[in-house]
Design brief:
One of its GO terms (molecular function) is cytoskeletal motor activity. This is Flagellar hook-basal body complex protein FliE. The protein is mostly helical and about 90 residues long. The chain is about 80% helix and about 0% strand. The protein has three helices and no strands. Helix 2 packs antiparallel against helix 3.
Length: about 90
């Protein structure tokens, strides 16, 4: 079996385009969820920094910490479910 570099490069390019988001298309649910998660963490961090310098009231800090905690707990639950599903697939007979 003779594998040429051009065939390998072409196959790689086709596989890469299948996994990358389409240009001009809307982001998927998982991408939006991760962006929202990142935004919540950044807002919590900014609020915590503002509270340390006296620029934010303690009530805003508690709200930001609560939102951050809820976001982290949600991500942990999703991660656990994904791992559980993967383990279930591994247990399936072939």
């Amino acid at each position: 079996m003779d594998i040429q570099a051009s065939y390998a490069a072409g196959a790689y390019a086709r596989a890469r385009s299948a996994t990358s988001p389409e240009e001009g298309g809307s982001p998927g649910l998982m991408t939006r969820s991760l962006q929202d998660f990142t935004k919540v963490l950044q807002q919590g961090e900014q609020t915590a920094l503002a509270a340390m310098t006296g620029q934010a009231d303690p009530h805003a800090l508690v709200q930001a910490l609560s939102a951050t905690e809820q976001a982290v707990e949600t991500v942990v639950v999703v991660r656990d479910r994904v791992v559980e599903a993967y383990q279930e697939l591994l247990r399936m007979p072939v």
